[in-house]
Amino acid sequence: MSDAMRAETVRITGHGGDDIEASLAHPLDDARHGGVVVIHHMPGYDAATKEITRKFAANGYLAICPNLYSREAPGASPDDAAAAARANGGVPDERLVGDVAGAVAALKALPGSNGKAATIGYCSGGRQSFLAACSLPLDAAVDCYGAFVVGTPPEGVPLKVGPIVHLAKDLSCPLLGLFGAEDKYPSPEQVAELEQALKESGKSYEFHTYDGAGHAFFAPDRPSYRPEAANDGWQRIWAFFGQHLAS
Amino acid sequence: MCTYLTETVELQGSGKGREGWFPVTRATVYFDHPVHAPAEHTLNVDLLNPGLGASARVAMELDPSAARALATAILEVLGSAPAAALTEARPVGA
Predict the structure, then answer these.
(1) Mean pLDDT in consecutive groups of 10 residues from the start of chain A, 247 residues
(2) Taking residues B15-20, what's their average pLDDT?
(3) Distance between CA A39 and CA A33 in Å, rounded?
(4) I need a labelling partner for A2 at 20 to 30 A (CA). Which of A168, A234, B38, B86 fits?
(5) Contact A80 B4 (CB under 8 A)
(6) How far is B39 from chain A (nearest CA, A)?
(7) How far is A215 from chain B (nearest CA, A)?
(8) B35, B40, B61, best to mutate vs chain A, most A CBs in 10 Å
(9) What would the pLDDT profile of A10-58 be if each residue is shown by its tens digit?
(10) Among residues A15, A26, A41, A215, which one is catalytic?
(11) Residue B91: its pLDDT value, please?
C-alpha cells in the first residue's frame, strides 16, 4: 500500500461565495478516505496547523485547513493576519460556518472521498468545531479545549463571540472533547456544563480531561505542551475518526 | 488559557516594520499567548496602520516584568524631558 501524499495551498469557495485560501493534504493511493476539516487556532493559519493537516493525511484522511483570515489579510504572514483578525474581534460565527461548509464540499469533491467528513479545532477552533457540527451535517467533530462554548468573554474584550451551548440540541454527529484540567477557558466547570447540555439532548459524546494539562497541551512548539496528554489525545482522535469516518 | 484582554489606543507616530518605516495610527496591547516568546503568556504590543494592511505591524512580546519596566522607563523619560521639548513634539499636521 502506498504511503505517498500530496500537500499544497489551494483556493476554495467559502462563505458568501468568497474565494479563500486553504491548505490541503491527502493520500495519493486509490482507496476512499474520510475527510477532516482542521480549524486553526486564534494565532492563525500557521505552520503548526498546516503540520497537523499533513498529519491527518499521513494517517489516511483527506484533510483541509481553510485560512479563516483570508479576507482580513490576504497574503499577510499568519501572525500579522492573526493580529488583524484579533483586533477586529475574531471570525464571525456565520462566516465560520460558511467557510467550513466550503471546506467540507471541497473534500467531498475529491476523487478519494468516501463521502464522510468531520471537523477538528483547537482553542478558538475548538468552539468553532462544535459550532460547525451544530450547524452542518457532519459525521464526527472534535473540540480541543474550545473557549466560550459556555460562558462569555470578560468585559473589555474585543472578541465578538457569545456562548453557543444552547446549540447542543442541534449537534449533527458524535463529539469528542479533549480538555486540560488546569485550563480556565474552558474551565472544568464549563466543560461539565457542556457535557450536561449534551446529555440532556441525548447526544453522543466522549469527553476526556487531562490532569496536569492546561490550555494548548497539543502544541509541541509551546511551553503548554504536555506530551502524555497530547499522545493520549491523538490516540483518542485516531480511534474516534477510525470509528466514525470509515467507509 | 486565552485571555483575549485587549486595549486599543489610537495614536500618531512611526514604526519600522518589514518594509521599512511607516506611519503608525493604532496600538493594541493585550496579554495572551505569544507567537515567538518562550512563555505561555506575554504582554503583547502591536503598533499598526490598518490602512496599509495587516503587514504594517511592529510586534513585541514581553514577559510581564519586562513590560512593566518598559512602561516605567517610558513614563520616567517623558517625565524628565524638558517641557518645552514635549510641547514642540507634535505630530506633523497637528
Answers:
(1) 92 98 97 98 93 98 97 90 88 96 98 98 96 98 94 70 92 98 93 96 98 95 94 98 96
(2) 93
(3) 19
(4) A234
(5) no
(6) 6
(7) 5
(8) B35
(9) 999 999 999 999 999 999 999 999 999 999 998 899 999 999 999 999 9
(10) A215
(11) 52
Which domains can be identified in chain A, with CATH numbers?
A: 7-27+34-244 (3.40.50.1820)
Cross-strand pairs, A36: A63, A118
**Assigned C-alpha cell, B45:** 504590543
Grid cell for residue A199: 446529555
Task: Give catalytic status of residue A93 as yes or no.
Answer: no
Nearest CA in chain B to A122: B2
Can you read off the three cell numbers belonging to residue B32? 495572551
Q: Shortest Cα distance from B31 to chain A (angstroms)?
A: 11
Residue A28 corresponds to which cell in the numbers above? 495519493
The interaxial angle of helices A93-108 and A124-135, nearest 10 deg, is 70
Is B6's Cβ below 8 Å from some Cβ in A? yes
What confidence category does residue B73 fall into, taking pLDDT thresholds of 50, 70 and 90?
very high
CA pair distance A99, A120, nearest whole angstrom: 14
A80 is an active site residue: no
Task: Kindly provide the ipTM of the predicted complex, given to two decimals.
Answer: 0.78
**d(C-alpha A56, C-alpha A111), whole Å:** 17
